[in-house]
């Protein structure tokens, strides 16, 4: 199997800015569901669940935001929701998911509604740090084979620099000959031209059937020659050998994450599309590794898994969201991708 079985299209980030935010999120969710052909009834259910999530961000959080995006895989389309905030967090997540539990005197049915309406739901919260919630909504249930699907083993989030509508960072994943391949690209600069570079990288990655990371990087190099170029990294996860092979150029960080710490992966200087030295892949054992993470320099290196207990037990998308919340900066485009459950 080759090609990218999962297409992710960011629709909008909604930052907490007052009482109008939940209404804006509701309208965007309904419009997206209808545009994707999910039907009027399912669109209404999705709008209800997404509104509850946005109300929670508005009522309970500090510096919260809501991301809506479109998912496409195997001829199916769905809506994905991600919320992130910087506190106050939940002391008891299990209790908060039960109907009737509220800290502000409301009915306390928000999380229950989201979980019941969604086809996939996950949540991770750290008191005094923040919460990440994710949900996926399909028409007629999740795609066939979803438990083993790439979207269950890889999760990523991008966010544009403050003031921009498009993000110059992008990521993609594919499965080829039993190997899980993941790519992250940070187009030089910001705005549409940076987004063009990262889009060219995604297209080249998804249409290639190469599984050697350095050869995939060469494919990206040729594809980005017509753009301003960028930083990029490719990782191959071999589930049989329980190893990861990594090849990166520029400021893409790779990390092998365990509960008690993380170790970095080697990236070399250069600009993909314009100036690259001779490429080499580096191999890393995955035994004992909870997650493999790739991110652009829109995240700082100042994050430690020990500050986010239980994170590695959650889905890859929640891991990516927590790291964006923990280490993302507003003065740059950001991309973070997490891989887990793949070895």
TrEMBL record:
CDD domains: HATPase_RsbT-like. This is Anti-sigma regulatory factor. It comes from Streptomyces thermolineatus. Gene3D superfamilies: Histidine kinase-like ATPase, C-terminal domain (3.30.565.10), PPM-type phosphatase domain (3.60.40.10). Residues 152-341 form the PPM-type phosphatase domain. It comes from the Bacteria. SMART domains: PP2C_SIG (SM00331). Pfam families: HATPase_c_2 (PF13581), SpoIIE (PF07228).
